[in-house]
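Exercise 7. Given the encoded structure of a 429-residue chain, write a plausible sequence.
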C-alpha cells in the first residue's frame, strides 16, 4: 500500500532532530488530514518497533472511539492486515495487539491518574487543545518503556493534532512562545489537502466569517485580542519588578475558596506594579496570610489591604469577616496592617474601565506593570473574554472547569487586581 502524503503530513511523521524525545502537534483546519496522519504514525511505530506500547487518547472516550480508533482500522484495512491474523482487537482491554508483540491502548484522559502506571514508547493525543496541561505533563513522565536492542533509531514520541486554540492556552505557550528544541508545530491549512472534494473549501468560505475561516480552515492561530476584557496590554506592561521590603505592599483580595486569589503590588501616585500573587487552591484566608508570611517574613513597610467589599461581611463559618481575619493574622506575625476597601463593589464594567485606563490611557501612557512571576494574573489578562456579542464576562462553568482545570483560575486573579485599581483610580461610567 502506498500513500501520497501531504507536505504537512510528511513533516509530522519525520523527525528533524536527534533528541531522544520528539513532541509534535499537527495544527490544522477542518479536513486537513490531522487524524489520518496521527493514526498512520501510530500504526507505523507499532510495526517498526516490535513490542512497543503506545497510548492513544482524548479527553472523552467517545472521541477516541468514533474518530481515532475508526481511522486506525481504516489504515489496517488499507495495508491489507487481517483481523485475528495480523492483529486483534481486545475489546475488554480496549487495545490493539499486533502479531509482532506491539500494543496500542485506547483511553480517555478524564481520569489521568489511572494512566500513571503505564510505561510507554509513544502517545497520540486527539484534539490536543481539549486536554489539560497537567495531563500532558503526566504523559511526558510516562515515556519510559525500556528500549529493546532490536529498535534501531528509536525515539520516544508524543504527538497530537488539533484545531488552533481560540485563546492563549498551554499549546500556544508551549509550542509557540518559547518551545524547547525538540518541540514542533506543523501547521496545515485545509486548502492544501488535495484529497478533498472539489469546491470543499470554497463552500466553507461561504459559510464562515473571515476570522472563523482563518482559524478553522486556514489553520492560523487566532486573533487573541478578540473580545478580550483587558485591552491594549502589550509586552511593555510586563517587566521584572523588584520587591522592596521597606515600601508599603498593597494586598488586594478576591475571597473565592478554590482558588483564593490575592495580588501583591507597590504603587506610586499614578502607577501600580504587581510583583507577586497568592493563588491557592482549597484554602482559607488565614492559610493565605501564612503563605504571605512564608514568602515575605522580613517585610518592614505597611501592608495596605484592598479588595472585594463583600469580604467585609461575616460568613456562616466565622464570627469574623475576612478582613478582620487578615488584619489579626498578619498583625500576629508582626506586620503593620491597614484595611482600605470600598463600602460596596462598583459595577464590573467600572472596574474593567479603570483597569484598562491604567494599562494604557488615551494618550498611550502606561500606568500598570505586571511581573512575569504573576502567572495567573497574566493568564487572565491574555484570556478573560466577554461572551460573544455581549458585555458579560465569559466565566467558565463547572463542567468546563472539570474538563480543563486551568479554567478555574479565570476571573479571580483579575478581580483581585482590578479591585485595587478601582479603589485608587476609579472611573464613573
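Solution.
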Amino acid at each position: 500500500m502506498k500513500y501520497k502524503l501531504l507536505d504537512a503530513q510528511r513533516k509530522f511523521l519525520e523527525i528533524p532532530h536527534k533528541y531522544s524525545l520528539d513532541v509534535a502537534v499537527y495544527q490544522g483546519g477542518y479536513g486537513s488530514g490531522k487524524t489520518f496522519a496521527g493514526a498512520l504514525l501510530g500504526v507505523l511505530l507499532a510495526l517498526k518497533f516490535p513490542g512497543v506500547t503506545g497510548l492513544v487518547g482524548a479527553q472523552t472516550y467517545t472521541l477516541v472511539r468514533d474518530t481515532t480508533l475508526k481511522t486506525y482500522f481504516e489504515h489496517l484495512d488499507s495495508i491489507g492486515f487481517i483481523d485475528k491474523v495480523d492483529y486483534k482487537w481486545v475489546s475488554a482491554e480496549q487495545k490493539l495487539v499486533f502479531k509482532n508483540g506491539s500494543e496500542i491502548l485506547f483511553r480517555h484522559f478524564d481520569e489521568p491518574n489511572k494512566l500513571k502506571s503505564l510505561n510507554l514508547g509513544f502517545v497520540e493525543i486527539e484534539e490536543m487543545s481539549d486536554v489539560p496541561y497537567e495531563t500532558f505533563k503526566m504523559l511526558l513522565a510516562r515515556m519510559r518503556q525500556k528500549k529493546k536492542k532490536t529498535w534501531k533509531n528509536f525515539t520516544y514520541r508524543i504527538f497530537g493534532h488539533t484545531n488552533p486554540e481560540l485563546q492563549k492556552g498551554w499549546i500556544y505557550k508551549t509550542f509557540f512562545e518559547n518551545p524547547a528544541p525538540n518541540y514542533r508545530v506543523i501547521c496545515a491549512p485545509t486548502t492544501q489537502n488535495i484529497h478533498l472534494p472539489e469546491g470543499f473549501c470554497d463552500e466553507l468560505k461561504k459559510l464562515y466569517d473571515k476570522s472563523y475561516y482563518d482559524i478553522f480552515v486556514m489553520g492560523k492561530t487566532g486573533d487573541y485580542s478578540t473580545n478580550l476584557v483587558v485591552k491594549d496590554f502589550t509586552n511593555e506592561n510586563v517587566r521584572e519588578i523588584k520587591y522592596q521590603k521597606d515600601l508599603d505592599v498593597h494586598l488586594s483580595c478576591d475571597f473565592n475558596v478554590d482558588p483564593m486569589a490575592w495580588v501583591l503590588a507597590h504603587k506610586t501616585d499614578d502607577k501600580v506594579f504587581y510583583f507577586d500573587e497568592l493563588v491557592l487552591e482549597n484554602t482559607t484566608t488565614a492559610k493565605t496570610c501564612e503563605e504571605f508570611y512564608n514568602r515575605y517574613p522580613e517585610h518592614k513597610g505597611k501592608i495596605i489591604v484592598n479588595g472585594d467589599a463583600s469580604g467585609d461581611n461575616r460568613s456562616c463559618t466565622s464570627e469574623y469577616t475576612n478582613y478582620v481575619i487578615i488584619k489579626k493574622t498578619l498583625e500576629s506575625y508582626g506586620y503593620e496592617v491597614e484595611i482600605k476597601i470600598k463600602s460596596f463593589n462598583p459595577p464590573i464594567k467600572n472596574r474593567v474601565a479603570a483597569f484598562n485606563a491604567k494599562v494604557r490611557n488615551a494618550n498611550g501612557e502606561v500606568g500598570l506593570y505586571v511581573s512575569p512571576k504573576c502567572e495567573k494574573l497574566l493568564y487572565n489578562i491574555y484570556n478573560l473574554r466577554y461572551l460573544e456579542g455581549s458585555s458579560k464576562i465569559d466565566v467558565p462553568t463547572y463542567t468546563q472547569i472539570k474538563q480543563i482545570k486551568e479554567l478555574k483560575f479565570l476571573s479571580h486573579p483579575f478581580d483581585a487586581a482590578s479591585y485595587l485599581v478601582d479603589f485608587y483610580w476609579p472611573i464613573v461610567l
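Remark. The chain has two domains: 7-216, 235-424. Students should compare their own answers with the one above.
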